[in-house]
Design brief:
There is one protein chain. The protein contains two helices and nine strands, in the order βαββββαββββ. The strands form two sheets. Strands 4-5-2-3-9-8 form a six-stranded mixed β-sheet. Strands 1-6-7 form a three-stranded mixed β-sheet. The chain has a single domain, classed as HesB-like domain (Hypothetical Protein Aq_1857, Chain: A, Sandwich), CATH 2.60.300.12. The chain is of the alpha+beta class.
Length: 111
């Protein structure tokens, strides 16, 4: 199992990278942290070289490098990261098959 991103998410990540002058070789880190009304929440950030751990999982999809720490990967295996800019909400969305419940705003989840 892996973590994948949609073409829309990859395109938006590349746009953000260009807007913020982030080097092309810097991966995006996807993590799960405690918080939110359902207990767990997602975190996206551009990784720096000093944050990479030898136990991190590395993926690449649609030209975007993705890094996930091992603990977060246990929650994220099989997840698809998508980006929408429609009327119902603009932003990144995680389609996580492991989540058994999420809050009404979709910002947090539980297993």
């Amino acid at each position: 199992m892996s973590l994948a991103i949609s073409e829309n998410a990859a395109q938006r990540i590349l746009e953000i990278r260009s807007e913020q002058n982030i080097p092309d070789d810097r991966p995006i880190r996807v993590a799960v942290v405690s918080g939110g009304c359902s207990g767990l929440t997602y975190n996206l950030d551009f990784d720096s070289d000093d944050e990479v751990d030898e136990h991190d999982k590395h993926f690449e999809d649609h030209g975007v490098k993705i890094v996930v720490d091992m603990r977060s990967f246990l929650y994220l295996a099989g997840t698809m990261l998508d980006y929408t800019d429609g009327l119902t909400g603009k932003g990144f969305h995680f389609n996580n098959p492991n989540a058994t419940r999420s809050c009404s705003c979709g910002e947090s989840f539980s297993l």
